[in-house]
Design goal:
Strand content: 15-25%
Number of strands: 4
Mean pLDDT: 81
Structural class: alpha+beta
Helix content: 25-40%
Low-confidence stretches: none
Order of helices and strands: EEHEEH
Distance between the termini: 27 Å
Strand order of the largest sheet: 1-2-4-3
Number of helices: 2
Radius of gyration: 13 Å
């Protein structure tokens, strides 16, 4: 995500795509400040991941919380987020 300039604030500590599911939290998440680029990324991820992604927009903090919709699916969540980040392209609008 950093290579695509989508700035993240927090992510669940200890979650790795190489971890065994029993070795870490049942819940994986990523938070990011809401801006045009992160909004485009969230839309991209929602189209690709569909029902596997839970997205919450926190108005007071102006941020997105992205998490696995299913408890215990950390590995697939991390792998899908990695795929979404690697395939994400952000086009700026020019007038």
């Amino acid at each position: 995500m950093n290579r695509k300039h989508v700035a993240t604030d927090f992510s669940c500590a200890g979650v790795s795509i190489w971890d065994e599911p029993e070795d870490h939290s049942l819940y994986a998440y990523i938070t990011m400040k809401a801006d045009e680029r992160s909004g485009a990324f969230v839309q991209w991820a929602m189209r690709y991941m569909r029902h596997r992604l839970l997205v919450v927009y926190e108005l007071e903090r102006n941020r997105y919380d992205l998490s696995s919709f299913f408890l215990g699916y950390n590995r697939s969540f991390c792998q899908l987020m990695e795929y979404c980040a690697s395939t994400f392209e952000f086009e700026t609008k020019t007038i």
